[in-house]
Amino acid sequence: MQNWLENEYPIIKRQAKAENAEIQWCDEMGLRSDAASARCFSPRGQTPIVLGPGKRIGCSMISSITNRGTLRFMVFTDRFNSDMMLRFLKRLLKQMDRKVFLIVDAHPVHRGRAVRKFVAGRSDRIQLFHLPPYSPELNPDEMLNQDVKTNAVRRKPAASQSGMVRNLRGYLRSRQRQPKLVKRYFHAPAVRYAAA
């Protein structure tokens, strides 16, 4: 982790500046309606009973953020695999007019053959960099994930999968329109190194 902070990331940052590339931090996560997330109370000595939503529903998202407050995302209901990652990368590149330095974690999909081949064939437009293993705290996009879990899922439970997807997309679109809030994800102590 120290090597990332002192050596690897500063090199990426200098290279991005030299190539006029935008550094984006990427992560994906699954969301479920039955996640234990609500606070509850019970008399002392008794186990609290938390009523769940009934039907188990879920969806997933992948997103990327920049320290300038840009948020890009995709919400989906299928499994996260190479095809899903490639869909996200293609959409991302359509929106970009400059090279992307995409920083991702060590998920097997990010290191898979299909993703490596796609990126290698577009090396003038995108380059992937991998965070050290087992260090999610170094990824500012994890702050977005926590925000989504706390404010989009817990505070507005959905009764159906389509409702959950709609709520999530609406919440993420509102965040896209508030770059100052996206920039705040980079204020967390563990990710301040990526703020400038």
Describe the structure in your own words.
The chain is α/β, with parallel strands linked by helices and 196 residues long. It has helices spanning 2-19, 82-95, 108-111, 113-120, 141-153, 161-176, 179-184, and strands spanning 22-32, 58-65, 71-76, 100-104, 126-130. Strands 3-2-1-4-5 form a five-stranded mixed beta sheet, sandwiched between helices. Strand 2 and strand 3 form a beta hairpin. It is globular.
Tally of helical runs: 7
Order of helices and strands: HEEEHEHHEHHH
Mean pLDDT across the residues is 91
Supply the CATH class. Answer: Alpha Beta
Helix proportion range: 40-55%
Q: What percentage of amino acids are in beta strands?
A: 15-25%
Just name the CATH architecture.
Answer: 2-Layer Sandwich
Q: Give the terminus-to-terminus CA distance.
A: 19 Å
What characterizes the major β-sheet? 5 strands, mixed
Domain module count = 1
Model regions low in confidence, pLDDT < 50 over at least 5 residues: none
Q: What does the radius of gyration come to?
A: 18 Å
Strand order of the largest sheet: 3-2-1-4-5
Question: What class do helices, strands and sheet pairing give?
Answer: alpha/beta
Summarize the structure.
With 196 residues, the chain is an alpha/beta fold. The protein contains 7 helices and 5 strands. It is globular, with a radius of gyration of 18 Å.
Task: List the defining traits of the structure above.
7 helices; Nucleotidyltransferase, domain 5; 5-stranded mixed sheet; 196 residues; alpha/beta
